[in-house]
Amino acid sequence: MGRMGQIGPMEIPSGLGRILMNLQMVVRRMGWIFAFLSVLPTGLVEAGGFQVTDSGDPVHWDTHGGKIFYRVDQGPLGPFSNAEAVEQVRMAFRIWQSVPTSTVSFQHDGFLGDDVSDENAHEHLQIPADDINPVVLDTDGLIIDLLQGVGARYTYLGITQSYVETGGRIIGADIIINGMNCASGEQGKQALLATIVHEVGHFLGLSHSQLNHSFWNDGDTENDRYLPTMFPIRSDDDSSLADLNPDDIFSLSWLYPADSFWSSMGGIAGTVIRRSGYPVQGASVMARKMDDPYMTAISCVSDFLIGGTGEFEIYGLPYGLYKVEVEPINPLFHGSAAVGPFAENPYSESFVDPILPECYNGPRESSDPATDDPKDFEAVQVELGETTEVEIIANEGQVGVGGWAIHQP
Ligand SMILES: [Ca+2]
Ligand SMILES: [Ca+2]
Ligand SMILES: [Ca+2]
Ligand SMILES: [Ca+2]
Ligand SMILES: [Zn+2]
After folding, report:
1. Ligand 5 centre distance from Cα of residue 185 (Å)
2. Continuous H helices in 216-372
3. Which domains, from first to last, does the chain contain?
4. Residue 337 Cα, ligand 5 centroid: separation in angstroms?
5. 18: which residues sit within 8 A by CB, 6+ positions away?
6. Strand-pair category, 68-72 with 106-111
7. Is 92 helix (H, G, I), strand (E, B) or coil?
8. C-alpha torsion 297→407→195→253, nearest 10
9. How far apart are CA 8 and CA 6, in angstroms?
10. For 286-320, what is each residue's pLDDT tens digit?
């Protein structure tokens, strides 16, 4: 993954550089990458979240209970007319807006002045704080090439760029949807919807989740409904990813909570630490409801707020008994497909001395996989309006054991 060619950088609208300096903005490019990474390295055992600034502030809109505005491109999108594409865009925003445990809401503020293309993209993109927030229909993928390098249009289904102040407040965002890879027909429309819902997730400040990634590209389309919408890579059947799963709903509600979110659901929180006592930065922690382990499952990345504590928080859980699991981030999920804040490149913290996957087993927790059986677990009771604390001592093995501890990019 990455830039596949060189092209002159996009002409930066005058003033952006200055704004960047003044606000110390972080520009993040999050894309949903295409199945070019479908070669899952063998030997890797199958192993959520939020975008955060470098200092660990969650990236979010400051809505004050108001609506977030967006405007849509006037042109077509691959096989779809403008009207068809706009319908999917509006539906995607509505899907996030309809989550009852979150307050987020949007306003479709009409259309951009143009059919945006690579020719005039500079007049519409990377202009934060004008309250426009364009949703660009990149019908031939050439805007994506302009932003990410020639050939990127074969890799990305969509890109979202957010403009973020120190402290994490989003002051503007651009969504670019690639029309070049869109399949036609109802199935294609549903897959497009899944792409747009995913990009709107990034627009809101959500990051990727690898929950249930063993179902990804396993040839079985039936189980793809267990992949969260914020799964980073296209799977066997994308169309089922348009629906939000509890994992997506948690991330949204944590960022933009309705009061009911804290009172009507329960939580599991705690830390993941190493044998040395150091925190585990960038492992996936999952809570799975015992009687519905794949759908009623919510994940978080350890130390997701870069606090140096290994902390994780999982809220939005219905009452019941849960199994808590921890696993390393899949090495595929770095760069544009990063899961968590420690997965920027193949040498980031998530991939250095990765921990071994295991279940939380209460008093039998230790760091030694010989005595802490990875499958042994202690069910955790979740009560509504309460948080159950869980401390996980990561199992660590010899380098290379089971192919876990060695990452080959
Ligand atoms: Ca266009
Ligand atoms: Ca599958
Ligand atoms: Ca254990
Ligand atoms: Ca352990
Ligand atoms: Zn993405």
Report:
1. 24
2. 246-255, 259-264
3. 18-251 (3.40.390.10), 265-403 (2.60.40.10)
4. 6
5. none
6. parallel
7. helix
8. 40
9. 7
10. 999 999 999 999 999 999 999 999 999 999 999 99
Is 230 in contact with 207 (CB distance < 8 Å)? yes
Q: Are 285 and 324 contacting, i.e. CB atoms less than 8 angstroms apart?
A: yes
The 10 Å Cβ neighbour count of residue 10 is: 14
Taking alpha carbons only, the member of 122, 225, 140 closest to residue 178 is: 140
Distance 274 CA to ligand 4 centre (A): 9
Identify the nearest ligand to the CA of 272 by its number. Answer: 4
Q: State phi, psi for 173 to the nearest 5 degrees.
A: -155, 150
- The structure tokens listed for 287 are 């809570």
Token couple for 107:
């306003």
Low-confidence ranges of the chain (pLDDT < 50): 1-48, 399-409
Query: CA 284: distance to chain centroid?
Result: 13
Q: Give residue 398's pLDDT.
A: 63
Ligand number, closest to the Cα atom of 115: 1
Of all ligands present, the nearest one to the C-alpha of 367 is 4
**Residues of the chain by 3-state class (helix, strand, coil), percent to 5:** 25, 25, 50
Q: Which amino acid is at 387?
A: T
Report residue 34 as tokens.
């295409």
Q: What's the one-letter identity of residue 291?
A: D
The answer to whether 134 and 24 have CB atoms below 8 angstroms apart is no
The tokens for 189 are 């429309």
DSSP state of 279: B
Contact 400, 406 (CB under 8 A): yes
Whether pTM > 0.90 for this model: the answer is no
